[in-house]
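Next comes the chain:
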Amino acid sequence: MAKIKGANAVLDVMYKWGIDHLYGFPGGSFDSTMNAIYEMQDKVKFIEVRNEEAASLAASAEYKLTGKLGVCMGSAGPGAIHLMNGLYDAKYDKTPMVALVANVPTPRQDINFFQAFDEMPWFRDVAVWVHQAKTKEALPVLMDTAIRQAYAKKGPAVLVIPKDFGWQEIEDNYRVSASNHVADNYAAPTAESIEAATKLIKEAKNPVVYFGLGASAAAEELKEFADKFKMPMMSSYLGKGIVEDSFKPYLGTIGRIGAKAPNEVQGHTDLVVWVGNNSPFSVLWSPKNAKVIQIDVDPEKQGKRHSVDVSILADAKKSLRALIDAGEAREESPLYKAALADREEWDAWIASFADDHLKDEDRVRQEPIWDVINKEAADNAVFAIDVGNVNMDHVRLLNMNGKQRWTTSGLYATMGYGSPAAIAAATAMPDREVWHLAGDGGFAMMSEELLTLARYNMHVLTVVFTNETLGYIEAEQRDESNQPLSGVIIPDNDWAKVAEGMNMKAFTVHDKAEFQAAVEEWKKMDGPAFIDVKYTKHMAYSTELNTLDDPEFVKYYHAEALHPFSYFAEKFGLEIDAASGASGHSEDKADALQVQSTTSASSPETAPDASSGASY
């Protein structure tokens, strides 16, 4: 019978599952696997990143973008530990992936050898499945199991491979179960749950839809549902892009990074149709006495974030279709009318800044840059979004069309995610345009991966928004805890020079026209490019404060054209408790605004202590 080396057998199993590449960094303990990669280079492509963290984040991002499991690898000791951030990202975002982790040869384990430690306990918390091969013959069987476990349990699986087993030969007779893998087929809702939910929808005065990533296969049903029952639509951040942003009843994302309208509307509903959403922040939203219809395939999620009146343990697409077919069409509620008017005013306000230049700062506002991105990005572009204020700009300002794809580090929210995600997008979807969008804080954490983009000539445009601060943290310190700025200032770096030093065409821009020209230059190229955008240091509109009845707030955010939600409520006859309205003013919010008004992103971190201790 034919023989095959253990490491080659592992890669062969991967290949038979339809996985033709993996991300990693070589190490002495992985020499046997690196040799297998060399011998199988006609089947398996090795994407060599500059840090194993990038490898694991890329593997996680690949599934989020394609629905196909990604594979990464790390050598014994430090290489294994560097994988942790990507593995936790996959765990938190329920993302199947496999990590191959090397160990020293079996005779040198447990004797305090170089780079050797007991790796299994390290991965037990993060992995849905973790195992170290005890025999060379087990390697292909365990690799097949790791892939099945990752898909079944929707998380990272870890296979630890002793170096000597990778070199040793085994019989080439193992069975791969890839042909038995089928797509998820979730249950249909029960008649009883649909009847109960339909009754609540009929009785509600001001219902809304609140959906998340679990509704990703139900875009058309979501839109038909919202249109028939006249419900404003809101989503978690990860729900952005499921419904195109141009669909008027879709207000956007609730929460700090979201727009004004959804944050105001969610506080005045009496029924929430909660679809495939597990946002941890949703415990803070929606009235406590609002009724909830929750649709989710996971029983653990039912009632986790809010008390639930009707639980539908079923597929989102099937459940929404059943509700559409069973329910009676509704007229537009006062909340529906107010919501759409609120959104329309917000959209017009955003558009009014599309050509706004800050000549006194020699910097540019957010809106002009994203206006160019909206116009220049391909209809099927992929966006790799880092973590920080870029999430706020992305969710508010990028108008996605339903064909475009995007990814970020969601529940785990690790900075530096953008570069590895862009590598994954360019590797797995080479025929699509890739935009890597990051703040200077997040980009600095993984800036070395420009080398990877350049080495493989990936057609990725890296755009770094430089405002010389950890903007998201700065806003937290100001808006939430009302404290002096501490630890958020970033030096003014010449990022374009850094990119050029990493073999990449680079531009520094200060206005919309310069950005437009740089984007057009990249589109003519077949490889990567880099743009350092000198961004305004002015913070984006705060939906946490949202005190439009305060002249100082209006002045700071140039919000003269915006109305508080009470204006729309009165206009359309929506009864609200003015004392608890989303635009209500308070002394604590005034204190927070005063901190904003008297300190800027470039102010010394010893700004006056105006903290009131408030948190909202």
